[in-house]
Amino acid sequence: MVVIYIIFNVNVPSMTDSADAMRFETTQKRNLTTAGIFFVLYILWDASTLYVYFEVKQQHDDFMYWIVEERIVASQTRSTDRSPKSSKFSKVSKISINSPKIEENAPLAV
Questions:
Q1: CA–CA gap between residue 10 and residue 26 (Å, rounded)
Q2: Interatomic CA distance for residues 7 and 19, integer angstroms
Q3: Sign of CA dihedral 69, 71, 72, 78
Q4: For helices 18-80 and 2-11, angle between their N-to-C axes, nearest 10 degrees
Q5: Tens of pLDDT along 72-109?
Q6: Among 40, 35, 62, which Cα is nearest to 48's?
Q7: How far is CA 66 from CA 27, 55, 69, 71, in A?
Q8: Contact 1, 32 (CB under 8 A)
Q9: What are the pLDDT digits (tens) for 4-47?
């Protein structure tokens, strides 16, 4: 505030006509008010831009963490859950598990 007051007082020329001095002072105050409004709007815009930047950065980090978790879960399920079409061994073992067991001494039904 002191700097603004000093600049305002230094820039006021010594005029003999009070109407010219009053008009100059009014114009300078209006320009100073306009500059102050733009400065406040810039600070608000800058603060909102920084907020959005950090919010998007946090969302990106959360999304990347989620992707890593999904890949880990997918790799765990892939290693533990093999499909029956993956190999001949699994087909044979599945057939032998599902078929009824035949005892060696049992008579065969005709």
A1: 15
A2: 21
A3: positive
A4: 140
A5: 998 888 877 655 555 555 555 555 555 555 555 555 55
A6: 40
A7: 58, 16, 5, 9
A8: no
A9: 666 666 555 565 567 777 888 888 899 999 999 999 999 999 99
